[in-house]
TrEMBL record:
Any single GO CC term annotated in Swiss-Prot or TrEMBL for this entry: axon
Keyword annotations of the record: Coiled coil
Lineage of the species this protein comes from: Eukaryota, Metazoa, Chordata, Craniata, Vertebrata
Gene name of the encoded protein: ssna1
Name of the protein this chain belongs to: Microtubule nucleation factor SSNA1
InterPro entries attached to this UniProt entry: SSNA1_fam
Biological processes, Gene Ontology terms: axon extension
Coiled coil residues, start to end: 12-60
Length: 114
């Protein structure tokens, strides 16, 4: 019977050692889980912060793009108006030169035909 008791004691010792190993591995796994949960929380916070920042940047960008479009439109309209002014000035200058020539001819002394 003492052999059986010794075998039972060995089995018991091995069982206790296996249980201790399992508990140790579980504790290590639990420590890793806790670390990853902390990291997950930190990352989720970072994502929230970055998402809010991205939203603000997108809103600001939309306002700036709209303002730039207004500038582009104003510049295009101003350039078109300026071109019309230049064309009108050119036409006015041509008419004025022609009229000046006509007035000069009208005010020249007439030659007498002999």
């Amino acid at each position: 019977m003492s052999q059986q008791a010794a075998a039972l004691q060995n089995y018991n010792n091995e069982l206790v050692k296996c249980m201790e190993d399992l508990c140790s591995k579980r504790e290590e796994l639990n420590r890793q889980i806790t670390q990853e949960e902390v990291e997950k929380d930190r990352l989720q916070h970072d994502v929230r912060v970055l998402t809010e920042k991205l939203s603000r940047v997108n809103e600001s960008l939309a306002h700036r793009l709209a303002a730039r479009a207004n500038f582009d439109q104003t510049i295009a309209e101003t350039q078109a108006a300026y071109t019309k002014i230049l064309e009108s000035s050119h036409s006015l200058l041509s008419v004025l030169k022609q009229e000046t020539g006509n007035l000069s001819k009208a005010t020249e002394p007439r030659r007498k035909d002999h």
